[in-house]
Amino acid sequence: MCGIVGYIGPKSIDSVLLVGLIKLEYRGYDSAGLAVISDGELTIAKEKGRIADLENRLRNLELRGHVGIGHTRWATHGEPSRRNAHPHTNSDGTLAVVHNGIIENYLELKQILQKKGYVFESETDTEVIPHLIDDFLRQGLTLERAFLATLKELKGKYALAMISELQKERIYFARNGAPLIVAMGEHAGQKEYLLASDIPALVPLAKLAYYLHDGEWGYLDNGVFLFNLENQHVDFSWEAVTIRAEDIDKGSYPHFMIKEIYEQPEIMRRILRRRLRQNQILFDELRLSKDFLSSLGRIIIQASGTSLHAGLVAKLYLEQRAHIETTADYSSEFRYRNPVVGGDTLVVGISQSGETADTLAGIHEAKAKFLRVLSFVNNLNSTIARESEGVIDLMAGPEIGVASTKAYTAELLNLYLFALYLSELRWKIQEEEKKSLALELQNIPSYMEEILQQEKQLRAISEYLADKNSVLFLGRTFNYPTALEGALKLKEISYIHAEGYAAGEFKHGPIALVTDKVPVIVIAPQGEMRSKMISNLQEAKARKGTIIAIISKGDDEIAALSDFAIEIPSIREELSPLLAVLPLQLIAYHTALLRGCDVDKPRNLAKSVTVE
Ligand code: AGP
After folding, report:
1. Which of 76, 235, 310, 595 has the smallest set of CB atoms within 10 Å of its CB?
2. Known catalytic residue: 597?
3. How far apart are CA 53 and CA 171, in angstroms?
4. Tens of pLDDT along 334-347?
5. 148, 229 Cβ separation under 8 angstroms
6. Does ligand 1 lie within 6 Å of residue 359's CB atom?
7. Which of 307, 332, 391 to mutate to test the pocket of ligand 1 (most atoms within 8 A of CB)?
8. Residue 490 — φ and ψ, nearest 5°?
9. CA atoms of 192 and 298, how far apart (whole Å)
10. CA distance 125 to 90
């Protein structure tokens, strides 16, 4: 996934574009570039590496202008390099394009253009766009017509922007399958118009925004002009930009990830305030009828990465609380397995970004089978939100760190409350039980705060892990997904190989991995599974494995058996995933820091995987 920005206005163009790109860097960070109409000429600057590297390059350039576009890349076609960095231009360098997505028919288009004599500089799919526009210009079309004609040739997903010396005061844009926002602000009495892949790049300049829909294109000039692919004018309405600068700023924290870990208690409070009132469970935004929900026969959850881990916990919540047969699949598997379904099946998508390509494809697959779709997302303007019949807001606020933390616990809590909501609809829960659950849920924020106070002790565990090459995580039932999530956190930001296993599987192979160099993290809070987890712990210990145990407060028995023990407040087992994951998030964070890794922008990753 990549990040795109564009600006027309009175401010100095390079600083506006650079600041916008820095705020989008979580979307991709292997190269960056910008194109500006400077003193009437199209000027390009691009660099391999981070935006800071581009900034250094700009120091030698005197850019004067007020129209420009920028791009930060997560490579799909062609390795990270200056040659493959965006913007890409036509042969005479009079027009420049930045693009997010994949042009699926780029090879065919490239061959046609090469036969016409076009020379390609890069290995990217994107470079076919400026040459196509150029070819249509040579056929006598105006720039506007050439841009539209080019869009009609492209197959695949794109969010793109283009500027040209032919119309120095204009930025063209188009969206099909990848997010793009147009926005408007004002500075010193003058209007400014902006373009971005995601809202953080627009804050605080933009006061009004419009999230483009697929098939829409247009241009920023002295205003925003919007059309569809039939070249008909499209009316649209602005919506106020409500995200504040502090929501997307690290503040006093050194990294977004640690800030977002510490935001979790407050996010739990926010969710509970909205969804749990006087023992009533409320999903006011739910558009699926109570009749349909109370007669549901089956739920299929589909999601990716951390969101699938939340889905695996939700599977147990929905089965045990609402008594609905539920499966949870990786989106990338669900979309190809052609499930046997009926009219009483609900497909549930879970996605923090709301842009994950596989999860979106899973939704398309569900709709192709005429199934109802409900999605839990952290961005109500996202593509997944728009393409789902029902949408539940995770309410976690913008999550910038590539490693998902606060969105995960927000997913768990929203999904748990949704399971209770269904259990109520289906007469599966007694009033007394609901009251005691509500009381326990209200304790979660303060329990989380208690755990976060152990950060210093957890750092000692990270010091132990920092030189290991492999770590195992074991959990059962509700905490089997916690084991998966703890392993994912560690591996994706510290680059230590880590695997999460259902602890019952330990003896069926993984135990062969245990040595005194392979620590085992066991998630063993109070509950039905505790005694079984003690057996697993003993098995690992007998093979010289170092034991790191997540235990309920006061569990001296397991503490005595462990090399390191982290206490979490006692809570009913089904709610323990909301607490047990916090120490694992902090351990991953500190281990990555000790290993000199970039915790917010880990190598090879991007915040949202909008390509398949
Ligand atoms: C989690 O830390 C990872 N960044 C990744 O697995 C992520 O959860 C996955 O790509 C799904 O993203 P989504 O929730 O935005 O769909």
Report:
1. 235
2. no
3. 25
4. 999 988 888 899 99
5. yes
6. yes
7. 307
8. -65, -45
9. 50
10. 14
